Amino acid sequence: MRIGELGRRTGVGAHQLRYYEAQGLLEPDRGANGYREYGEDAVLRVRQIRHLLGAGLSTEDIAYLLPCAVGEAPELLGCPELLAAMRSRLRRLDEQIGRLAQSRDTLADYIDAAEQVGGEHYPPFDGSEPEPVPA
User: 47 phi and psi, to 5 degrees?
Assistant: First the structure.
């Protein structure tokens, strides 16, 4: 099947499919006319890629994981490449969460301090968005 058909069957645009190819995640054959030709297995592969991207993995991580992927969801076999990549990604996520939590705490401290010094004119912060100021 050509790239347009693969896109229709997976809901992924041709530009994104070419990106997956450039990242080594898809390997189409080339027809005599030079067009990309994808086998039926490409539909499953694209669905696997989409699920793994949805888990927050990078395309670089996914390139390591795909040999360990079985099924659409996919189920990942416990091969060493898979476990190392997933542990690395989990560490990066934990670090990001830590930085965000620290930023949130610091911002909350600034808000608390501002409310103590002349903030009596403002309601306490409840996490909601402020009302827009009329133009």
Answer: -65, -40
